[in-house]
Amino acid sequence: MSMNRSGNSEAAEPIFLRPYFQQNIWGGRRLAEEFGFAIPEGHVGECWAVSAYPGRESVAVNGAAAGRTLAELWRDVPEFFGPLPEEYRAAGYPFLTKIIDAREDLSIQVHPDDAYAAEHENGARGKTECWYILDCPEDCTLVLGHTAKSREEFAGMIAEKRWDSLLRRVPVRRGDFIQLEPGTIHAITAGVMLLETQQSSDVTYRVYDYDRLQDGRPRELHIRQSIEVSGVPAREPEKLVRHTDALPAGRLTELVRCRFYYVSRLPVSDSAELPADRWFRICTVTDGGGSLIIKNSSAPQGSRFPLKKGDSFLLPASVGGAPEEGAVFEGRMDVIVAGPVI
Predict the structure, then answer these.
(1) Are the CB atoms for 130 and 180 separated by under 8 Å?
(2) What is the pLDDT of residues 36-48, one digit of tens each?
(3) Could you give the CA distance from residue 19 to residue 183 in angstroms, rounded to a whole number?
(4) Does residue 29 have an active-site annotation?
């Protein structure tokens, strides 16, 4: 892959990324068992598959970019990402992709929007996120939303620990997709594995953590912030869930488009084309495997890259730079594609 603007054939390569792994009190070992990742010892709950977040960066593993972080590529090789507005570029790489393994229930939590985070979290981004359910137990439910009709009622039910009355649970199954706006009370539950696309932010407010201990102490809660940022009344939680298991194979289907990202699903049963785009795209193979073939006049004939479950890669803007060019997936796999909204 070219590290300059020369336009040679290496600029057409996808950039495969090595994840950062996060240990969590609620994490397990399925990231190694299901995806073959070389994870650290202990309870590992998060694979930061595509991340430029400080201290938790993904690292390129192929081509001339090998060994460089995604943040470094964003800073030094703007042509990989397309003709982005300068203000957009200056704000830093915009979103991140995680695979989450919940051995136990996650805390009941909520995230702020950009305005609140900027004011109260040292200029940080807020956190809009979405989930694609990779696996879950039979009869699985997630915590999505609450029953309070006013902020006063919401605060009172928290103070009285009326969790069974306050929290709403929604059934989900494998292949479901959920978009979570800031202010949505939520929790991933035990046995769920999912792919998360979110703003590049780590601002989380815990409302309740089941009184469990970490290193002999309860984890910090953020009751005041949670009351301030939560949406009251909450949106109907059933409307947050979209079933995707009946999507046609070979067709790219957009699941969400918000201010910060779009996310699409591409089920591949034989061959499927990813059309050209002006801007970079992030692809994650969530199941199966096969090959990626680059259709680009600057690429050598037959530029083919093997793919397996768990691979995440950046398709630079130079891949498919002309209307007749793009990329082709061959094999049997499920691919989630995300990109910027400009």
Answers:
(1) yes
(2) 999 999 999 999 9
(3) 28
(4) no
